[in-house]
Fold this sequence. Notes:
This protein has helices at about 5-15, 25-35, 40-55, 85-100, 120-130, 150-160, 165-215, 225-235, 240-245, 250-265, and strands spanning about 100-105, 110-115, 135-140, 145-150. By secondary structure, the protein is of the alpha+beta class.
Amino acid sequence: MTTSERDLAGSIRxxxxxxxxxxxxxRLAESAGLAGAFEPRRRNIARVVLRLSRTRPVDELGGAQxxxxxxxxxxxxxxxxxxxxxDHCRIAYLRGRFLAHGSLSLASGRTHLEFVLPPDDxxxxxxxxxxxxxxxxxxxxxxxxxxxxxxxxxxxxxLRTVGGGSALLEFESRQVSRSVRGExxxxxxxxxxxxxxxxxxxxxxxxxxxxxxxxxxxxxxPYTVRLVAQARREEPEATFSDLATRxxxxxxxxxxxxxxxxxxxxxxxxxxxxxxxARE
Length: 280
């Protein structure tokens, strides 16, 4: 990742880490999701766990929150019961899983988010994410389970779900700008290629017209062929459709006339065609 991309990924993580749930159940759920963090994140995660365990003035029911145990140590979270939890608690739990085990990469427009957990926990996380309609890939790597997303849409949906804010908006804005630039470049390249082919084809047609005119065979061609040849000389850059509109004939007639001219120029011994004055 570039420095800018690394900073943006760090900003997204920092915003999500700064979320301070109001519900006690969500604070406990997020603490449960933070459990088992691998190094080197343990120190940073410890700060989040400590913040989550601190006393809040009033909980959602109006009762006082339990205080942090003596000595400032955060209480050990109880196992999270996903099946019985409300959606807001599940989201808090997934937020904890991301902060403790998630890794976000935004390198060169390619979005990659993965969770590294013990194999059993990784399989469980896959099932949980699928319930939020965010299915992920699962594989083993050096004895650990790796849950992976490479879809930008899925990654942004997840980050928005767990509380991504202005940094996520910046990321989405960059992705949209990158997509627009890519589409614009594709259109420009396609138009340039089409223009190059049209210019080359027009040059070949003009050369063929000159060959037929020099040996007198152009004058012996049907009226429509001679009419198209004259129009091509006057408008070398015109498309088949432009020539057809100008002459009031079908585009296919223009195409056939020019193909005939090129074919005759390549085969000098081929017949001159219909007698002069005949219409195609």
